[in-house]
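Weekly structure sync, notes
Attendees: PL, DS, HV (note-taker this week)

Item 1: Acetylornithine aminotransferase
DS walked through the input record. Source organism listed as Onishia taeanensis. Sequence as pasted into the shared doc:
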Amino acid sequence: MSYTPTRSDFDRYMAPNYAPQQVIPVRGEGSRLWDQEGREYIDFAGGIAVNALGHCHPVLVDALKDQADKLWHLANVYTNEPALKLAKTLTERTFADKVFLCSSGGEANEAALKLARRWAYNEHGEHKDKIISFRQSFHGRTFFTVSVGGQPKYSQGFGPVPGGILHAEFNDLEAVRELMGDDTCAVMVEPMQGEGGIVPATQEFLEGVRALCDEHQALLIFDEVQTGVGRSGSLYAYMEYGVTPDILTSAKSLGGGFPVGAMLTTDAIAPALGIGTHGSTYGGNALASAVALAAVEFIDTPEVLEGVKRRHALFRELLEEINHKHGVFKEVRGMGMLMGAQMSPAFEGRAKDILPLAIEEGLMALIAGPNVLRMAPSLVIPEEDIREGMARLERAIAKLVAQA
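Item 1 (cont.): predicted structure, written out as tokens:
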């Protein structure tokens, strides 16, 4: 059967849990995309912080093509060379000693939470099972991770949520202190809340949470699914803060667009995840591991990471210029190539209205909740694409202001 799909086919054939824009991109190169009609777009969305090197970067394409001719999948009855190379590289470049490979950020966070509970059970007994997370946090769509996430809208209507989960206010150390106890097995935190509005943690907050975990013999889990692999300007955001977790989760930019996730931990904790305790059918398959290895090795270089920080400064400068003209933003914030612009009171809740206007101008962007415009472009987006994309964004915002 040969036919050209249309946007109406989504409504006809796909489950209705998404509401994609009306255009269908068919080709990408770098930070630009083209739709079915041949119209060009600049990509500030980055596949929701996934396309770390843009579209069809030759380093990733070459890694995929090379591995595609050798070996795709074995499952975990056997191991494979790309998976072992990736695990070795991740441990050499981070605090970790051991790696669990999987297919997504949700899987990585599920593994982290299960590991924390299992470790606490083995080391301290069944009473030590409480997990502390934060309001407005987001950790995935499995039932465990969506329950640990601090946005009830994602778990409502699916029945009783797992027990032993507590939520504190983000960046409020005293709120964490009040919940901590001898029954706390782990604290799970994003160094910068992504879906919760692009809110970086303060230095004092993360240092304080680390100290509380040490005091109560609890594990500190950093969810770096969105902030990891160069997105913050360091390989992982914990390096920006100088605060080391016990468990770290990674996905999104890790594969540069290929589905892959990883959980990193130490020799002291990893044995709790013994044979048969957890698994992932596609986790660590040769194709994903080869692409992820190429991504990590390319991104974790001074040239790329320093470039992320330069691009951040340019993004912030241009967003402030737009705001000076139109007054639509209350605050511009973020780290590296993960930026958020919170809407001003006059445009409260209208971040989502910018997206279709931006599409009209040839720009793809995101939101992080109804009140924050989010940008998570390629880490290597050319300066000319940043400037042209911002010009298109300004035209979209001018339309928004005219509608007010």
